[in-house]
Design goal:
Distance between the termini: 44 Å
Radius of gyration: 29 Å
Helix content: 40-55%
Shape: globular
Length: 736
């Protein structure tokens, strides 16, 4: 096969024609290679131990207030009197001391850094902190302000203006609507209620409540048209809007997403003012290159990728979507077609990124954004107008406040309406690089079919490559039982994917009471990453908080077919509330005893215990033998010594290739039980295990989820395949 010299000449021509784009792509690839080798991550600084350390720090960001806590960035200049230099995240329970950027603090506490992500799906908080340049998290026991560095005039003016705008908005807009208006104008989302956040998230509209590229774009448009209204030429209107964009970036907190949006707006406005359309792509590339040079980690941040993808999508898709409607009347074209085309262009471009980062696609968001995005711009404009008019006459401010209030009501109603749809979101696995490439190739080819016959072939091939991997994956899983033991701390949660495609859960992990290992941070992201929409059966082995409490969050996120419970009674208030919730949701509840059998798709789950109820609640735990294709797996929950003895003496066949060690590996068990089970692999759901337990089993085949991460076992006819989420993390020490 020979490659035509014309291809090289064409490629070289494109590089010469768009050198900035070529340079940006080359630099991005270089950063990816460096990052893969760990060259971009800052050094982690932790100070574990009982004795706290004394840190000297300079506050570098405005505090971000959240319910029950506040956090801010700081540069650590000394630890226990010795010089240091790294960035840390300081997390406080309150800000009663009054802390501002530029303050010098003495902090007594310990440095900490979160562990790596241990389960598929979900948010990698450790990697996120490293991307942001943080080397440590400090939870102070004591904080003292020992000095203050005078901020620059621009920053002091921006903070004062931010405070003034917030005060005026809250004065003229009712509390509920102010929750929407304030964050959209100044970026302060500290007072948004959880109810509002949930409705905006479920409807695919949460992005409009966070000051980002969208709001900066609105600001640019507002001032551009304001100056145009005064008769200024396009170039002058563009140039004069730039200082106001810079001021808005500072007022909005100047966090990285807002700064990136400001830089992007700067280059795009300069490009547009030159009246040369091809320069838009060059300008976007120049903006990206500028950002990546000063902040290499930005390339790997979701906000960077989403902002540039949306902007490029608008530039590329908008003319093609709007062109068929060019003959419509001006008003219809400007206020209907253009709004829909711009919104749809952005959504087409960011769709795979949304799937990658959030493991879900908001179907409601495709429609809700068409309604909400234009109103979001009007809310931002009305908020800024309200503040400006308050200096002219109070009556004007009251009128503008009413406009902002009713626009916010429309946004809230839109979010609440679309979040209530039963199919508002679809859970999807994170797409890979090939899926990304095929998606964009397919979309681009569809728009070129009329002009280029080869585009039809490209669309067909790329479309097939989008569908085939998913179909192959489903076919391969049809003949297997897959069990995934999630790392949920000293708790239990096991996901069973049956050959029929049904999904079962054995226990549900913790609730929000344990933030690090709560179901919302572990179980739910994992289930979404598997594309699960419904859980057909949930087993609660034990009426003990770490086994069942996560079900409350799971039932809020997924539909459930049946819940199988332990027959033991519990005095825990939350456990009693569970049955009320199940009744409200019309979910079937079955009380299971020894001898009950559950079958589906060739899988048999036999309940071995309890046969009778003991005084000790651990001895009443559900014990389940799962069998498929000649393979067996024994799930023991919190089985106690009495139940263990009964099983050892009463059952002739307890053989199982996999044993889920009872009581999270905290209690040793008898040699007779181990011999009768004869397991090849041992799974311990815990951060650590009793050394005596490890001595009694095959250490090389023991997997502690807190060390190895989630453990995935695939059972097929005549064989077992086991892998851990952390590659090579086998055995109790985590070594291979």
């Amino acid at each position: 096969m020979t490659i035509s010299p014309k291809i090289f000449s064409w490629s070289w021509f494109q590089i010469k024609r768009r050198p900035v784009i070529a340079l940006t792509v080359l630099y991005a690839f270089l950063l990816i290679i460096i990052d893969a080798r760990g060259g971009l991550d800052p050094k982690i600084v932790a100070t574990p131990g009982a004795e706290p350390s004394l840190f000297e720090a300079v506050v570098t960001s405005f505090p971000e207030n959240k319910p029950n806590r506040a956090s801010f960035a700081a540069k650590i200049t000394a630890i226990n009197g010795e010089k240091a230099s790294f960035k840390a995240l300081i997390v406080l329970r309150d800000l009663s001391t009054g802390i501002f950027p530029g303050d010098t603090l003495e902090i007594t506490g310990n440095g900490y850094f979160p562990p790596p992500k241990m389960n598929p799906g979900g948010f990698d908080y450790r990697k996120y902190l490293l991307r942001k340049g943080f080397s440590s998290i400090i939870y102070p026991r004591e904080v003292r302000v020992i000095g203050s560095k005078k901020l620059s005039f621009a920053k002091r003016a921006a903070y004062a203006l931010r405070k003034s705008i917030t005060s005026v908005l809250k004065k003229h807009v009712p509390e509920k609507e102010a929750e929407i208006v304030v964050p959209m104008v100044v970026g302060d989302d500290s007072e948004i209620s959880e109810t509002v956040k949930k409705s905006f998230t479920d409807s695919g509209l949460m992005h409009i409540l966070v000051v980002s590229g969208l709001n900066v774009g609105y600001c640019a448009v507002i001032f551009f048209f304001l100056f145009r209204a005064f008769g200024l030429p396009r170039q002058w209107a563009s140039a004069l809007s730039l200082p106001f964009i810079g001021l808005y970036v500072l007022v909005a907190g100047a966090n990285p997403p807002v700064l990136r949006a400001g830089v992007m707006a700067f280059f795009v406005i300069i490009s547009l003012s030159l009246k040369r359309e091809p320069l838009i792509y060059q300008s976007l590339s120049l903006a990206a290159l500028f950002i990546m040079i000063f902040d290499p980690q930005a390339l790997f941040m979701a906000s960077f990728q989403l902002s540039f993808a949306a902007t490029v999508g608008i530039v590329y898709f908008y003319p093609r979507l709007a062109k068929p409607f060019a003959n419509l009347p001006f008003i219809a074209r400007r206020f209907l077609v253009d709004v829909i085309a711009v919104s749809l262009s952005a959504q087409l471009a960011v769709l795979p990124f949304i799937a990658f980062y959030f493991n879900k696609i908001s179907l409601a968001g495709l429609i809700s954004n068409l309604i909400a995005v234009p109103f979001a711009g009007l809310v931002t404009a009305s908020g800024l107008a309200l503040y400006a008019l308050s200096f002219i006459w109070g009556g004007f401010a009251v009128f503008a406040g009413l406009i902002a209030e009713y626009l916010a009501k429309i946004l809230i109603l839109t979010a609440e309406t679309f979040s209530g749809f039963s199919m508002s979101t679809i859970n999807v696995p994170a797409p890979g690089v090939l899926t990304f490439a095929c998606y964009y190739a397919f979309i681009a080819a569809v728009f070129q079919i009329k002009k280029n016959r080869a585009a039809l072939l490209c669309a067909v091939i790329s479309g097939l490559f989008l569908i085939i991997p998913s179909a192959v994956g489903k076919i391969r899983s049809m003949g297997a039982l897959e069990a995934t033991f999630l790392d949920v701390g000293n708790s239990d949660c096991i996901h069973l994917r049956l050959p029929s495609g049904s999904d079962w859960l054995v226990d549900c992990g913790n609730s929000l009471g344990y933030l690090r290992n709560s179901a919302s941070r572990t179980v739910i992201p994992y289930l979404r990453s598997r594309g699960i929409k419904r859980i057909d059966r949930i087993f609660i082995t034990h009426p003990h908080f770490p086994h069942y409490s996560g079900i409350f969050e799971i039932l809020d996120a997924f539909k459930a077919g049946e819940v199988v419970v332990n027959p033991d009674l519990s005095e825990e208030t939350d456990y009693l509330k569970l049955f009320e919730k199940l009744q409200d949701l019309n979910v079937r509840v079955k009380e299971a005893w020894a001898g009950d059998v559950f079958k589906s798709g060739g899988v048999t789950a036999e309940i071995l215990a309890p046969e009778t109820l003991f005084k000790e609640k651990d001895d009443n735990s559900l014990v389940i033998m799962v069998a498929f294709g000649g393979n067996r797996m024994l799930l023991t929950g919190d089985m106690g010594s009495k139940e263990e003895k009964r099983l050892t003496e009463s059952f002739k066949n307890l053989k199982a290739q996999v044993l889920h060690v009872p009581n999270h590996g905290a209690r040793n068990f008898s040699g007779g039980f181990l011999k009768k089970v004869g397991a090849e692999y041992f799974i311990i759901s815990s951060r650590r295990s009793d050394p005596k337990v490890l001595c009694s089993i095959k250490k090389e085949n023991a997997f502690i989820t807190g060390v190895s991460g989630a453990v995935n076992i695939v059972f097929k006819q005549g064989g077992i395949r086991l892998k851990t989420y952390k590659p090579g993390a086998t055995g109790p020490s985590g070594g291979s």
